[in-house]
Design a protein that fits this description.
The complex is a heterodimer of chains A (114) and B (113). Chain A contains no helices and 11 strands. By secondary structure, chain A is an all-beta fold. Chain A is globular, with a radius of gyration of 13 Å. In chain B, the strands form 2 sheets. In chain B, strands 2, 4, 5, 9, 10 and 11 form a 6-stranded mixed sheet that branches. Helix content of chain B is 0%, strand content 53%. Chain B has strands at 5-7, 10-14, 19-24, 31-37, 43-50, 55-58, 61-66, 71-76, 85-91, 102-103, 107-112. Chain B starts with a strand and ends with a strand. The chains are: A mainly beta (114), B mainly beta (113).
Amino acid sequence: NAGVTQTPKFQVLKTGQSMTLQCAQDMNHNSMYWYRQDPGMGLRLIYYSASEGTTDKGEVPNGYNVSRLNKREFSLRLESAAPSQTSVYFCASRPGRAASYGYTFGSGTRLTVV
Amino acid sequence: SQQGEEDPQALSIQEGENATMNCSYKTSINNLQWYRQNSGRGLVHLILIRSNEREKHSGRLRVTLDTSKKSSSLLITASRAADTASYFCATDGGSSNTGKLIFGQGTTLQVKP
């Protein structure tokens, strides 16, 4: 009953470095999402994948790319990290697009860019 | 921009008391959801209320929705120290075909033993 698994849990990057945040769910959910959480800002949507094979931009996509590798996995890539990307990143999934489902969240990746 | 605005931003009560948190939103919705986040953890889905519902209960949780005022409230009755967490409302912004949710900034609840 793992749910949504995110790796790594913590990461420190230097400005300009790249990295990929991994997310996998074992609930056979169709839709997956990446959010970032900053103090006083709540959660903001970066990218989402409403179904396998599709990805779309959210509210704050600049500086990020995503890959929906298969139905289980949805990765988030920072090509050239900037201090403004210091945040806590959450991956979430839900069974389908329909508005009647709640999200299942991972435990987060705490990223610091120095 | 944030769809949901929550009030108060912080709330401190004694164990056994009731806690009420409010959420206001800007656009039409299909449903509104409430989540809990314990410190350093991910969010946990608590309850979902549809736009044609006015009140919903789940255990010690009671959620109300007033679409005419674009507002919702979450009531936690007989609070416990374990209820200490941040609580977020989230709406779909009226979009039912993407599953995107728009989150408020949250209410931090402290329940003192």
